[in-house]
Amino acid sequence: MSAADTLNELEKLKEQARGGPDPQATERQHAKGKLTARERIELLLDKDSFTELEPLRRHRATGFGLEDRRPYTDGVVAGWGEVEGRTVFVYAHDFRIFGGALGEAHAQKIHKVMDLAVAAGAPLVSLNDGAGARIQEGVSALAGYGGIFARNTRASGVIPQISVMLGPCAGGAAYSPALTDFVFAVRGISQMFITGPDVVRSVTGEQVSHDGLGGADVHGRHSGVAHFVHDDEETCLAEVRYLLSLLPSNNRELPPRTQSDDPPDRESETLLALVPHEGNRAYDIRTVIEELVDDGDYMEVHAAWAANLVCALARLGGQVVGIVANQPAVMAGVLDIDASEKGARFVQFCDAFNIPLLTLVDVPGFLPGVGQEHDGIIRRGAKLLYAYCNATVPRVSLILRKAYGGAYIVMDSRSIGADVALAWPTNEIAVMGAEAAAGVVFRREIAAAPDPEHTRRQKIAQYREALMHPYHAAERGLVDDVIDPRRTRPVLVRVLSMLHTKDADLPRRKHGNPPQ
């Protein structure tokens, strides 16, 4: 063969790999309202930046007719490219080939791209659209998943890992997304479950659809498995790009800084009206976040799950921050099991990737109830406490209004290591609300009084004046300053700038043993 013939043969093989098994397979994928693997990669990465690994890889399995079906790529497109000029590794299941099912060669391609991502110190994005293990390959396929799980775990806290669910993900395959930092899902096409509807029906008798068992909204609202839920693939992948723009490439780097047209010294009269002085009046903490951050722009994590706590990524003065905030508009902003676990995972992620933490506190306590106690609020609520105490990134807390009991301590109080603790003049820091405290401390006096209700009101006022005035904590050094709410943004920008070079180490150890 001449050199020209050789090159022509190579181009034909590459074109065959790019085109997929047949045009009808692409049409079937589009008929389901789904993009192909390569179309998804094109949306995710900067134009013409993708470099593919092993496009000519084929499986070597035999039996069950596999020896006659050996398509190029073996059902997964893998490689690297750029997002806003920074390197990102990616692999995408190709549902047109074996339904995206994972076999030995398929798994080895994924292993390679995962190893390269860690070696290069760059984020890894998986575009999941597969039918699980390739049954015809038996234990070899299962071992392939084991290799993925081991690599997910070793990469945890080293590089950002993002899973995008764009089709089915069943059985053991669902554990790889669960091991990653963030999971995106798309309504109508994303499904995740350990056992499918048929197995559920045969074992428990419960009737449920695929979407009802493990659809995007199920995992975005009820299970907490999905961090972000979107209506279409294009919007979803655009948001993955935005998330990557907020994250460092690895745990040795700081998040990328930007220049903002929003003045860092901008004051806000609006903040005075957003937070009611009355502690029992609800408001939306997200309006406060919008007023504080650059250009009012933030990315909320787990927006529909455990909505009594808001977790978000944003920028303040061009610097990326992780925001944890009680949400008085939902359950009065109390902490419960789900909110504690949500906050703990977010705090751990920010700490792993050098993202400073800003905690906005307006919390009446932990949610009381038999169900919470029996379901383990003690050990599961302790996860948030552990995460904060273990974090070494810059930590700033701001008490907007009330901060009662153990929940005040857990929400990154000065006593557990916040670098700077601030408060608005509307703050109330106490063991509990004045009404409940007076009922405990002055119980006998109130009961013996000629007018118990009048005495109760007097004792409430006495307790409030003695222990709940806004400057009680400041007098004892538990709050560094009580600030004018209108100047909150300038103060926070200045504090975060000061803490930018913070250097803190934990005691030498293999790893901690957080509460489970």
From TrEMBL:
One of its GO terms (molecular function) is propionyl-CoA carboxylase activity. Gene3D superfamilies: 2-enoyl-CoA Hydratase, Chain A, domain 1 (3.90.226.10). Residues 1-33 are annotated as: Disordered. Residues 1-259 form the CoA carboxyltransferase N-terminal domain. GO terms for cellular component: acetyl-CoA carboxylase complex. InterPro entries: AccD/PCCB, AcCoA_carboxyl_beta, ClpP/crotonase-like_dom_sf, COA_CT_C, COA_CT_N. It comes from the Bacteria. Coiled coil: none annotated. Pfam families: Carboxyl_trans. Residues 263-501 form the CoA carboxyltransferase C-terminal domain. This is Acyl-CoA carboxylase subunit beta. It comes from Streptomyces roseirectus.
